[in-house]
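Handout, section B. The chain below has 138 residues.
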Amino acid sequence: MGMKISLALGERKPLSRQTAWGCLMSNVAMPGAGSLASGRKVGYAQMLMSFVGIGVSGVFGIRLIFWMLSKWSAMRDPATDQLDLMAAMWRVFVWPLIGFVIFGLSWLWALGTSLAVVAEAKRTATAEPPSNPVPPKL
């Protein structure tokens, strides 16, 4: 019997502080994962945005590496016009940079969502009285 994996969200319920911090750490590792774990639909957009950023950086980063390998001798040649070479390098370098920016924005968005989840868990934890107000016997 195999394990079923589902991306469907369950009902949104108050989280404990420990679970909220776990969601924050999940969002730090992979934007959107902690948001989904906390029951927020915005996690789908955060995760998609992070995958797009990683994909753009990966595809165009490989293209940048091949471009640099093909221009290696021109980069080392003192007779090459360095300004033309830098302009050409910028045209190839800008796309991986855009991918990094997209991923960074998704990470910041997920971090903001996580901090809101932690703050909400803190509010609900202080608003609820403890279930057993009597301390345990030692």
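Note. The two ends are 46 Å apart (CA to CA). Compare this with the example in section A.
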